[in-house]
Amino acid sequence: MICCEKCFKDAEIKGIIRSLKRKGDCETCRSKNAFIYDTNENNELTDNFNHLLGIYTSVSSLPKEFPKEKLSLLKDTLKDKWNIFNIGSEWIYLLIRDICKEKYEEDPELFDSPVGILEMNESAELKAYSILIDHNWDVFKEEIKTNNRFHKSYINTSALEALFSYMEINIEKGQKLYRARISNQNGYPIAEMGAPPAGKSSSGRVNPEGINYLYLAAENKTAISEVRAAAYDYVTVGEFILEEDVTVVDFTEIDKISPFSGIDVLQLAINIEHLNKINIEIAKPLRRNDSPLEYLPTQYIADFIKSLQSKNGQRYAGIKYKSTLHMEGFNIAFFDEKLFKCTNALVYEVDKVDYRYQPLDE
Ligand SMILES: [Zn+2]
User: Fold this and answer.
1) Residue 152 pLDDT
2) pLDDT beneath 70, residues of the chain
3) What distance in angstroms lies between residue 30's CA and the mean position of ligand 1's atoms?
4) Which stretches make up the RES domain (predicted)?
5) Both 246 and 184 in a single domain?
6) For 316-352, how does the pLDDT look when each residue is reduced to its tens digit (9 = 90+)?
7) If you measure from the C-alpha of residue 1 to the centroid of ligand 1, how many angstroms do you get, rounded to a whole number?
């Protein structure tokens, strides 16, 4: 069977297929003159997929009490839980069977009947692998808000640290980022565009009350959206220049972490949904009447990231997350505002705001 680079979303797999330098027409996704992989002649993807498939067990080999809701067909799991393929589940079935021919001959059930991850149902294994031990994010949130604030019994810090190391990105000295403040028509001077003074900041999704972080946006439109200026407001936007190379933890690309990047695949499979929940929670806009307690769970995660070192031995400088107020935009919360110099502050007038709303379900 012939597939091609375009049949996949996963960057590692695309890279392997491109490196084979074979061009032709794809019989799977019908792309013409693409970099192709022929399962009859190539085997460069076999080890990668055998390794990934190795975390799954077919239903007949799982214990009887394994929860049925955690079972699904391999082709559906590969389509829905992983961001590997660009093709439908029927094509995934045919392709994976050909890529992993020998595994299919040894254990056809793995491909043809429902599968599950054995460790998901074993308390000791789950405790070792899951970042939330044997809880879920909602239980952790409730615990930290209402019961046990500074105790680590709900977080597996070594698993979390290992996963963050695959979410690192470097940002180079000289990068320009933006922060906005609602102002009057004269605007704020450059000196007043930084983070609030220590002890004065109110709590946010990433910073606890009194600890000042510098929240910056990648574009000035995102920065203006983030302060939620109304029509005819004046907004001062400061331009900030990064003064040294830094490493941050990037939550915006969680779904692009490749299971073929050398990561512990089982650990990633068990935690991918937890990581997505953390990402959604960090990006959630603050509401006027939110209780500051709402922000404790993400503040806890941020504080932990702040205490860790990146692969190059530097401490992480911040957290990157999606903007929910400006689609396609992203924000970075930096732990130390001294990493930046504000070089310019421009005043804008907001001439139009596009409100979108919907009735709240009872
Ligand atoms: Zn293709």
Assistant:
1) 65
2) 151-152, 362
3) 6
4) 189-346
5) yes
6) 999 999 888 877 899 999 999 999 999 999 999 999 8
7) 11
Q: Which helix (H) or strand (E) holds 141?
A: helix 137-146
On whether residue 258 sits in a domain, the answer given is yes
In a domain, 153, yes or no: no
259 CA distance to ligand 1 centroid (A)? 20
- Domain boundary (53, 84, 119) is at 119
Whole-number Å distance, alpha carbon 81 to ligand 1 midpoint, is: 20
Domain residue limits at 315? 168-349
Q: 2's torsion region: left (phi>0), alpha (psi -120 to 50) or beta?
A: beta
Q: What is the pLDDT of residue 362?
A: 58
Q: What is the pLDDT of residue 240?
A: 97
d(Cα 183, Cα 347) in Å, to the nearest integer? 8
CA of 71 to the centre of ligand 1 (A): 28
The protein residues having their C-beta less than 5 angstroms from ligand 1 (an ion) are 4, 6-7, 26, 28-29, 31
Q: How many C-alpha atoms does 224 have within 13 Å on its Cβ side?
A: 20
Pick from 119, 141, 160: which residue ends a domain?
A: 119
Q: Rounded CA gap, 166 and 295, in Å?
A: 25
CA 181/CA 233 separation, integer angstroms: 10
For ligand 1, the distance from its centroid to the CA atom of residue 257, given in whole angstroms, is: 21
Answer whether 251's CB lies under 8 Å from 167's CB.
yes
Q: Taking phi first (over 0 means left), then psi (-120 to 50 degrees means alpha), and beta for anything else, what does residue 328 get?
A: left
